[in-house]
Amino acid sequence: MRSGMTNDEIARLFAEHDDFGADSSIWLRLITRLLTQGKPLGEATVVCVDYPGQGLPLGAFASTDRDRLIFWPVLPRDMSVGCRGRDITIPHHITLEFPSGRIHATAYNERGTAVHRHCGRLQRIGDSGFSIWTMLVVERSVLDDQDEAVQRKVQTPVTDKPRREAEFRRFASKLSVRSMPMPASDGDSRCLCCAFYVVDEGVKGSDFDSSLLLNGGLWDKQVEGWPEGHRFMIVRFLLQVGTRRVLLAACCCPGKPRSKVGLGFPNAPQPARVAGDS
């Protein structure tokens, strides 16, 4: 289930077990609504960090016909995604709404009902052509410790089975996986810092000014000991998500992450939420 398995070993798992793999897996969270409610899904893209010999899932992106962008962040394998009452402890996914720019987190309670919480609003950065959506800090160990294969056996209403099977095949046929280069580090880096920006039409990814990412004030809630003035290698990765373009700007930081996975939002009504203490 985790890294290092051969294709034959994975195929044997599929044949011998109905359910395996962590509930927090990106691959499962992507299809939650299809598995539980039979709701159709749009096209999705999983972004993996390209590390020698393996691709490490970082997150997944999709757009909806209601002009929304959705982001599923990577989570630790042992983490339970959910909420207590109306309080979202661990987000299932993050949604950006247009044209309002409103950002909300979603989790599902024990009954499978979606619970939403307002997180902030898309923030335009002057006349740069970039608007910041979400900041993500991931401890390197979380990227390393992800399932390569997951499976769930789900009971489907007999009357809806053909439609659901067709929806699943359609989604699987259009699911894409993109590889983002791993930023170079000085060997002491414990975490990957990544900020996501919505990009205006006509603006190139190469137009992104690295100083927008390296501002310590952007990361001090997620990274302890952010080294001001340190020169990082910045990776810029432009992604088409539906009709929108999203730039992923990332660096490896020698500071200590305050949590295994940290999320931050512009114009947030309260401090950034985190997923899992170190």
Structure description:
The mean pLDDT is 83. The protein is built from 5 helices and 18 strands. It has one domain. The two termini are 23 Å apart. The strands form 4 sheets. A 7-stranded mixed beta sheet has the order 8-7-6-3-2-1-11. It is 14% helix and 39% strand. The protein has 278 residues and is mainly beta.
Poorly predicted ranges: none
Q: What percent of residues are in strands?
A: 35-45%
- The first-to-last residue Cα distance is 23 Å
Which sequence of SSEs, written as H and E, runs from N to C? HHHEEEEEEEEEEHHEEEEEEEE
Q: Structural class from helices and strands?
A: mainly beta
What's the overall geometry?
globular
Number of domains: 1
Treating each run of at least 4 consecutive H or I residues as one helix, how many helices? 5
User: What is the assembly state of the chains in this entry?
Assistant: single chain
Order of strands in the sheet with most strands: 8-7-6-3-2-1-11
Overall mean confidence score, pLDDT: 83
Q: Count all strands and give the number.
A: 18
Largest sheet features: 7 strands, mixed
What Rg do the Cα atoms give? 19 Å
Q: What helical percentage do the residues reach?
A: 10-25%
Keywords:
278 residues; mainly beta; seven-stranded mixed sheet; seven-stranded antiparallel sheet; 18 strands; 39% strand; globular
In short:
By secondary structure, the protein is mainly beta. Helix content is 14%, strand content 39%. The longest helix has 14 residues, at 161-174.
Task: Explain the layout of strands and helices.
Layout: H1 7-16, H2 26-29, H3 32-37, E1 44-51, E2 54-63, E3 68-73, E4 82-84, E5 87-90, E6 93-97, E7 102-108, E8 114-121, E9 123-124, E10 130-139, H4 140-144, H5 161-174, E11 176-181, E12 191-199, E13 223-224, E14 235-241, E15 244-253, E16 256-257, E17 259-264, E18 274-277
Parallel strand pairs: 1-11
Antiparallel strand pairs: 1-2, 2-3, 3-6, 4-5, 6-7, 7-8, 9-10, 10-12, 10-17, 12-15, 13-16, 14-15, 17-18
